[in-house]
Design brief:
2 strands
Length: 297
């Protein structure tokens, strides 16, 4: 299968060059420093702060990984040679996408020692850890698609990196800029932020709406890359495709399922609570009292 051959070639190119090892080293240095710098101060066996760092770090690590996928081939002219082979645009794009996702998986694989160390120091809840790594792969795959789209727009790898970083950082920081938007748009704007969807999964909540969001970013990014490489009718088709994806997500927001992986299902109502709530005829008000001894999370 051509997709497999292309993915294998791209993955091999990653690890032949020093780029892979430099990126992994920078990632481990940054994530390890910021995570363990506060881990012992918090005094809890939790990976929460680790996963909270990933969206920002991925926003520039992944564009650095993907910037060469198309830009380099367009620059040196090897892309035209690739097209003479019995492959399609989709084969090339999906093959490169899979290579990028597998490389992100290799980066995350190098951090599996963290939960093992934490589990040895305290009582680690594994549900949020499983959800966090699943969310990290979905986030990484979405940003990989964005990076491939940026790489397909230009022959210059630096420009591809800058464009990819801007888009990824924009999706990451969008939820922190909601104060700039009117109240009527807050819910719609918040939906496009990647951080909220990732944080939900990292808590140990597997929600179909969050999964659909990341799949949508992947599809839009890869479809945009396809149109950019074919260089025909790209603007109108791209807009139409985005509208379709938005409509699919609107339907998915009403028809969804969720799985709570946390210990004791702390983010889910018990059957008894659901029965009580279902009989209410007026708005429910909940009062929460905090104390100074409340743990940081």
């Amino acid at each position: 299968m051509q997709i497999v051959h292309i993915a294998r070639k791209e993955l091999k190119d990653y690890f032949i060059s020093p780029i892979a090892y430099i990126v992994i080293a920078i990632f481990l240095l940054l994530i390890g420093w910021f995570f363990f710098a506060t881990f012992f101060l918090v005094g809890q066996a939790s990976m929460r702060s680790f996963f909270s760092l990933l969206p920002a770090i991925f926003s520039f690590i992944i564009p650095a990984v993907t910037m060469r996928l198309f830009s380099e081939e367009l620059n040196i002219g090897s892309y035209e040679t690739l097209l003479t082979l019995p492959v399609t645009f989709n084969d090339i794009i999906i093959g490169k996408f899979l290579a990028g996702v597998l490389f992100i998986g290799a980066i995350l694989l190098s951090t599996l020692s963290y939960p093992l160390i934490i589990a040895g120091l305290g009582d680690l809840a594994w549900g949020p850890v499983i959800g966090g790594y699943l969310g990290a792969m979905l986030l990484g795959a979405a940003f990989t698609a964005v990076g491939i789209f940026a790489s397909a727009l230009t022959r210059n790898q630096i420009i591809a990196f800058i464009v990819g970083t801007i888009i990824c950082f924009g999706l990451t920081l969008l939820n922190n800029m909601l104060f700039l938007f009117p109240d009527t748009l807050l819910k719609a704007v918040a939906f496009f932020g990647a951080s909220t969807h990732f944080e939900n999964i990292a808590k140990g909540i597997i929600d179909s709406r969050d999964i659909l969001y990341f799949i949508s970013i992947m599809v839009v990014g890869l479809f945009g890359a396809n149109l950019a490489m074919q260089n025909r009718g790209k603007y109108l088709k791209f807009i139409v495709y985005i509208v379709v994806i938005v409509l699919v997500n609107m339907v998915g927001s009403t028809l969804f399922f969720r799985i709570d992986l946390t210990r004791d299902g702390i983010y889910s109502l018990s059957p008894e609570s659901k029965q009580v709530v279902s009989t209410l005829t007026e708005p429910l008000t909940i009062k929460v009292f905090f104390t100074k001894n409340l743990p940081p999370p």
